[in-house]
Design brief:
Rossmann fold; 13 strands; globular; 40% helix; alpha/beta; 7-stranded mixed sheet; 6-stranded parallel sheet; 11 helices
Amino acid sequence: MLRGRVTLTQVAEAAGVSVGTASKALNGRGQLSPATRKRVRDAARALGFDQGTSESLTGGRSLIVGVLSTDSYGRFTIPILTGAEDTFGAGEIAMLLAESRGDPIRERHYVQTLRSRKVDGIIVTGRSSDARASLTSLIDVPTVYALSPSTDPNDISVVPDDAGGATRAVEHLVSTGRSSIAVVVGPSRHLASAHRVAGALAALEGSGARLAGGHALYGEWSERWGYEAAGRLLAAGPFDGVFCASDQIARGVLECLRDHSVSVPAQVGVVGMDNWTVIAEAARPSITSVDLNLRAVGRRAAELLVRTIMGDDVPGGIEYVDCSLVARQSA
């Protein structure tokens, strides 16, 4: 038993679950397995957790959280919102969504709107992992940045580990016997490109495999660029693996290889990134891809936001969430 007041966070850590899951287990909510509920309750009992003084994630308070996004398509925001809802739970915390379309004037307007609605905190998210300007001067409530980190190191940011995900992709290609691996990415100005190239090169170093062509190929986040890049690779010389920094690029690569009668994965293995299922599962062959685990990003961002709202001292900086490989037919 721990001395002092035991928190819900400590119970969650002891049970190996998220804070939101711990809250649901202790309050009989959510669709959890009996084993998970038992593990959480056993952990609470062992730690001496007093549910009567802290019955829920919010200590019994009803909160309103604003979500400010620049993602007009919802490709990135929806899984982050789903993860946040996992943490917030039904009935405890309501979310208000505002989408600025990347327009600073519209964003400032929505910040004022959320403040007028007296939100208890705000999650700021976007459509890329590029750093964005801090809203500290405009916001006087706890704020956490998800996917798109703040440029202010004092702000709390939660992002996918892009470099680690790229490393995992190339390691998978190496493990399947590939020895000459190309790296095809988006624009060099994007942080995602830089991080994914760095992770790919780190995996190649000491692996026995070489970087096909001697350098990464930078272009667009598009199938058209993937097709063009694959054509360049075919003209330049032999290769047996391609790491594509997005699934859109990977689909273009696959189309080009198919048009040139190159068999995937028999002759060339291809791994994408983002695990955009509408593309990865529809491609032929289906694309092995790295999932950014955006739902986990949303869960963690929500956990840190609630802790801040409830008065916990949460240090600023960037927290990275591990990516995972989803194996399909292309590698």
